[in-house]
Write a structure and sequence with these properties.
alpha/beta; 5-stranded mixed sheet; two-stranded antiparallel sheet; 11% strand
Length: 235
């Protein structure tokens, strides 16, 4: 097994979420609108990859927000960021006997295999950065998150993560992720709107629609053509 360590540049971006995050303080967008409870594993989470250099990353996959944690247990307050990174990485390791078997995890791995065929998971981890557009869970899993909370997290964390990978393909899996990224109005080095590929979600119900697979294949085509591909419109 390769070394699964959170890249230091990403660590700098994400560490403020564990102070705890100021965005959850009174008067800020996330106050009372997301669930944060370290005692049961409710922490900012849902990211993995970038185990090599930042320049190695060819694809950034962005999904909606984490569901309720299944790990449970209080985390070591001095290691919360590293532990949540490890938990997420291990959850997508299908060779791990404790891995989850849900459609979401299998579909994400399928997307990685489409983008990086004949490549071991450890090597795929160098080429992808996977993250949530909102790092904390909704008050009720799968329910909408208040837009103020979405934008608070987007400006604090998502924008900085995406800016770290100016040459990588960005793929938004699902409408939530796509709409949240769109509001960031990302620009490339020339000042033009940055291309974000919209694909179907890896989780149900989006992944159950027939156009889901072709949309993931178009993400793979973009990765294999150095990121040059048209946006995909979700019906």
């Amino acid at each position: 097994m390769g070394k699964r360590t959170l890249n230091r540049k990403l660590k700098v971006i994400l560490e403020p979420a564990y102070l705890p995050c100021a965005g959850a303080d009174k008067g800020h967008g996330c106050h009372g609108k997301v669930t944060i409870d370290a005692k049961v594993g409710h922490l900012p989470r849902g990211f993995f990859g970038a185990t090599g250099t930042i320049e190695d990353v060819e694809l950034v996959l962005v999904v909606a927000e984490p569901g309720d944690p299944s790990e449970g247990g209080k985390l070591d307050a001095t290691k919360e960021l590293d532990e949540t990174y490890k938990i997420t990485t291990d959850a997508f390791d299908l060779a791990n006997e404790t891995h989850r078997t849900g459609k979401f995890h299998k579909n994400v791995r399928h997307i990685l295999d489409l983008c990086f065929p004949n490549t071991k998971f450890e090597d795929q981890l160098k080429k992808v950065w996977f993250t949530e557009s909102v790092l904390c869970s909704a008050e009720v899993t799968t329910h909408p998150i208040d837009r103020a909370a979405e934008d608070e997290c987007g400006e604090r964390y998502l924008r900085a993560q995406l800016d770290l990978f100016p040459h990588a393909v960005i793929a938004a899996l699902g409408n939530k992720a796509s709409e949240r990224i769109a509001r960031l109005k990302l620009k490339d080095s020339a000042g033009d709107d940055r291309v974000v590929i919209k694909a179907y979600a890896a989780a149900p119900p989006g992944c159950n629609h027939k156009p889901a697979e072709p949309s993931w294949q178009k993400v793979a085509a973009a990765v294999q053509k150095n990121g040059i591909a048209p946006s995909i419109v979700i019906a």
